[in-house]
Amino acid sequence: MNVTRRHMLLLLPAAAIAWKHVLAGTPEAAPNYKLSEHWWSMLIDLPKCIGCGNCVRACQTENDVPDGYFRTWVERYHVTDYDIENPHVDSPDGGKKGFPPSKEEGGKNFFVPKLCNHCADSPCTQVCPVGATFISPDGVVLVDKKYCLGCRYCVQACPYGCRFINPATETAEKCTLCYHRITKGLTTACCESCPTGARQLADLKNPNDPIHEFLKTHSIQVLKPYMATHAKVFYNGLDGSVR
Amino acid sequence: MNAFKDAGHIFRLAAVFVCGILVFVGVRAVLVPKSFGQYGHYRGDALAEIAARPVNFAGHQACEDCHSDVLDKKKAGKHVHVNCEACHGAQAKHAEDPASVQPAKLDTAVLCVRCHEANIAKPKSFPQVASADHSSGLPCDTCHQPHSPAIDTGETAQATTPATTKVAPGGTK
Question: Which of A13, A192, B22, B99 is most buried, by the most CB atoms less than 10 A from its CB?
Answer without folding.
Answer: A192
